[in-house]
Amino acid sequence: MSGFNYEKDANGIVTVTMDMAGPVNAMNDEFLPLLNNTIDALEAEEGLTGVVLTSAKSTFFAGGDLNVLSQATLENAEAFFEGVQTTKAALRRLEKLPVPVAAAINGAALGGGLELALSCHYRVAWDDRSVQIGFPEVTLGLLPGGGGVVKGIYLMGLMAAQEYLIEGKRVAPAKAQASGLIHETVSSLDELIPRAKAWVLENQDNEAARTQPWDTDGYKIPGGNANHPAIAQMLPVAAAMMRQKTRGLMPAPERILDVAVEAMRVDFETAMRIESRQFTTLACSPQAKNMINTFFFQMNKINGGASRPADVPPQVTKKVGVLGAGMMGQGIAYVSAMAGIEVVLKDISQEAADKGKAYSEKLLQKRVEKGRMAEEKAQSVLSLIKPTANNDDLAGCDLIIEAVFENMTLKHQITAELEGYLAEDGVWGSNTSTLPITQLAEGSSNPDNFIGIHFFSPVDKMPLVEIIMGEKTSDVALAKAFDYTKQIRKTPIVVNDSLGFFTSRTFGTYLDEGVRLLKEGVHPVKIDNLGKAVGMPVGPLAVYDEVSLELSRKANDTWKELGVEDKWGDGSIAREVVATMIGDYGRGGRHHGGGFYEYADDGSKAIWPKLLELYYRPEADLADSEVKDRLLFRQVIEALKCLQTGVLRTVADGNIGSIMGIGAPAWTGGLIQFVNTYGLQRFVDRCGELAERYGDRFEVPQIVHDKLAAGALFE
Ligand code: NAD
Q1: Residue 308 CA, ligand 1 centroid: distance in Å
Q2: CA-CA to 383 of 20 to 30 Å: which in 165, 203, 432, 519?
Q3: Ligand 1 geometric centre to CA of 432 (Å)
């Protein structure tokens, strides 16, 4: 039976083992009655000497129920706040029991799970990789509202608590012990409950041990309270630094700092109430709704295989061929070998292939130097990569990924030449970034088994892979590419074929709008700063330089040949600016000696002065809000068009793909989710204004009208 199992031993210690309905213990509707009933029983228990709280699940306790949290609105905020206070009151009862209470942490204790453990007087954890401890709330736009912020400050002090509360760091038990979050670790699971019980027995008569620090007279917060000169001096700086980091777009870190400071100023109970209020405010915020929706629910959907054909059995990749040991190929070889897959890395010469393998060697060496990997392990990863110029080495690959130059004829030619080396039912993947998969597959005698596997640069760091279905791509090929992506521990999104797929096409609008603003006379520094102010990692002109104007010109030449140059809208302004930059001034981008910016040897950069002369017109000044919306809305509109035309197969793929692949701002929850909390009607109206002022590229896609008419959101 699910619930809290209650078992008293001969010494009078009650072990409460949490085993709630469902896969994890969580703060849902079942939780509070269970906890309160258990405490009732403990309070009435005769001869009680102490309590051990543990879990029957593989995790200790999972924390707040996000389904409940995401229902908070301004209308029900007061009731929500009361609910938080009620939960806190139950946790308070636990820590006020007149006997020692120990948490035996057998698995992850994150967020609400850690708050539950902090309501025990003593915390022992199993020192195992599966046991993570921390407060990840901030990554969902929230704060730990069950006492986590206040208690975190009491236990660690403001400085040490920051990495947990504001950065959302999850740590291993040993580190949590060093930080003061837990008291002790044991090396095996078998020792856990005996150790917790032993502590209870040792401290039966020790009143101090069963009094929480925040209930102890004269307790001093580590590092001092808000009046301590070092803290008082640091506060304004910390607030300013945070503002710089969040760019004012993320309320959660700022609220956490607020609560933390209050915890050092006012009494414990008042601080707890302030924490509940701020938590309620955050739970109602659009940012938290966006982040919970996308980073939790949609991410789980994607990682759970929602975009993968369910009826195809798991496809394990054992031997992958990587064609082209250039920038992308060498990264693909590295991540594959890291996942234990045998890799054949082929280039046109042995020397070029060796150079590609040397890249892995360099990355592995760094890991060893940093103590993140043992030398033997690094050697065994490296030994999985065979650099070669010999086709025969590809024999028996169950997956071949080509990452040769971006050229249709070359790609057709190597497909025809090498697909025969694939194992039976082997799959051919292309890492093209701009060429339509269906057309590339025409070079294959087996287009069913041809699929796009689009990586992002740098491959070892970027978490996303965009899988592209050609017209004829089979479900088995999709399952193979999907499972391979999971094997190399990346997140797959699946999209249908179209020029630029989803990510490049949508990202392209950001670059295009940046260049249009430049051409209209807006100051380039203003354009890039406002791109960042929206939450994009880099301004459009700076990122254009990184991608390189050269590459954009080449891609355009290819599209021109294919007759699809302006398929997604008028690209003539960007073409003209790029032609001027490269043709007249030789400015092809960062790796071509500079582009919109000049790059100094010391790594700094500044706007290329001639750019101002060429384009800047002070009288063309636009309001910041116009520039910001233009840069963001272009991308949102393009993502919606991708959804409308079936390039995107799910909303989740669009949201996750936009954040992980093109750096869409986290606060939006992804380019499609943005519309849900911005408000569909408001979005239609704003698009109308922008379209009237700047052109029909801002016209709202029909799919938004359809959703509005149906009274639905994008889900
Ligand atoms: P690159 O120029 O760095 O590397 C290409 C490699 O392919 C070179 O080492 C070259 O010698 C090799 N090559 C050429 N012909 C070959 C052949 N017949 N057999 C074996 N090897 C051959 O290029 P890159 O940046 O790694 O891009 C490779 C592919 O990945 C392109 O299709 C590109 O569009 C795509 N891509 C690039 C990026 C990026 O950010 N650079 C991102 C996603 C996808």
Answers
A1: 28
A2: 432
A3: 9
Q: Nearest 5°: CA angle at 36, between 31 and 38? A: 95
Of all protein residues, whose CA lies closest to atom 25 belonging to ligand 1? 327
Sort 92 into a burial class: Cβ within 10 Å, 0-12 / 13-18 / 19+: middle
Which atom, in ligand 1's list, is nearest to the CA of 406? 32
Does the Cβ of 406 fall within 6 Å of ligand 1?
A: yes
Judged against a pLDDT cut of 80, whether residue 1 lies above it is answered with: no
Query: CATH says 504-634 is which class?
Result: mainly alpha
Q: Kindly report, residue by residue over 568-589, the tens digit of the pLDDT.
A: 999 999 999 999 999 999 999 9
Domain boundaries of the chain, sorted by first residue? 3-284, 319-499, 504-634
Using a 6 Å cutoff on CB, does residue 323 contact ligand 1? yes
Same fold yes or no, 3-284 and 319-499: no
Round to whole Å and give the CA distance between 664 and 535.
Answer: 7
Evaluate the CA torsion angle 240, 242, 243, 244 in order and state its sign.
positive
CB of 550 within 6 A of ligand 1: the answer is: no
- For the entire predicted model, the pTM comes to 0.93
Cα 324 to averaged position of ligand 1 atoms, centre (Å): 6
pLDDT given for residue 563 in this prediction: 87
Q: What is the pLDDT of residues 219-258, one digit of tens each?
A: 999 998 888 998 889 888 888 988 888 999 999 999 999 9
Task: Classify domain 3-284 by CATH number.
Answer: 3.90.226.10
Q: Which CATH number fits domain 319-499: 3.30.70.20, 3.40.50.720, 3.40.50.970, 3.40.50.10260?
A: 3.40.50.720
Residue 305 near residue 282, CB atoms below 8 Å: no
Atom of ligand 1 nearest to the CA of 329: 26
In whole numbers, what is the pLDDT of the chain averaged over residues?
A: 96
Question: Hey, what's the torsion of the CAs at 82, 84, 85, 87, to 10 degrees?
Answer: 120
